[in-house]
Write a structure and sequence with these properties.
Elements (H helix, E strand, L loop, with lengths): L7 H36 L1
Length: 44
Amino acid sequence: MLLSSQSGTTMDQVLDKNQEKTVKSFYILRQYSKTLSVVVTTSW
């Protein structure tokens, strides 16, 4: 692990970026499932 040799702030930044990615993908997933349920409901 290269990160362990670097400062803690770098690790924090990486964690923040990962969290941002997770939040974004979660939001996209939620929007996608909403759209999907609407499509399924209207197609029935």
